[in-house]
Amino acid sequence: MSAEEKSMSIIVTKGSLDWAYPPFILATTAAAMGLPVTMFFTFYGLPLLLKDLKLQLTAAGNPAMKMPMMGGHMGLPNLLTAIPGVDAACSKMMKNLMNKKGVAPIEELRDLAIEAEVRLIACQMTMDLFEYSLDDMIEGPELGGAATYIEVATQSDINLFI
Amino acid sequence: MADHTLDAKGLNCPLPILKAKKALKEVPTAGTLEILATDPGSVADFEAFCRQTGHELMEHSEDGGTYRFLIKKTA
User: Fold this and answer.
1) pLDDT per residue over B13-50, tens digit each?
2) What are the extents of the domains in chain B?
3) Which of B36, B37, B21, B29 minimizes the C-alpha distance to B3?
4) Chain A interface includes B21 (CB < 8 A)
5) DSSP state of B38
6) What positions of B carry a catalytic annotation?
7) What is the CATH number of the domain that holds A11?
8) Rounded to two decimals, what is the model's pTM?
9) Distance (Å) from the alpha carbon of B43 to chain A's nearest alpha carbon
């Protein structure tokens, strides 16, 4: 089986701390395994290309989010998740946990993706919609739209939507 | 004795694979890379990585929670 014959694309639609991981983990790993990879950043996924990432997660409406704590696993009742500062505290706790467990920060995975020549496409429509310019973004992304992505998808063996 | 050793202990998925890929660049063709890791998931992942890339997984073993892989670079 030749790795060169396979390629992958990922549509990245979400930009919270937790949702940022799957696309960057899969893109960097696929690239390491020899696959040409394209990531298309649209809607809330687009801010993952910003120079300065301030990733947070939301505890509200996420019953599966349980942190290991005092020998067990603790979640937050929805009512408490609305208190100001709770998301920031949960995000900080998650980042500490990730650091302790040797999970790479998203910034590091993103740098590795660029180093591995993963092709990054920023959705032009989302750029307009949320009033971003390429100056706000890291070096590397090109601009494109749905047709740009579809062309990539028709040439890719694996197409993921995350 | 391996040509190169990569200490990936304490790193979690996918870092051992990504660092191994980078380390392989420093290894000559037919040379070997030794990887030390503590991520139990790295066992299945290095097998898959080698099947996909064509590099040869010559040995793997575990000693007290540390996994050791020896990969021969094929191309």
Assistant:
1) 999 999 999 999 999 999 999 999 999 999 999 999 99
2) 4-72
3) B29
4) yes
5) -
6) 13
7) 3.40.1260.10
8) 0.92
9) 15
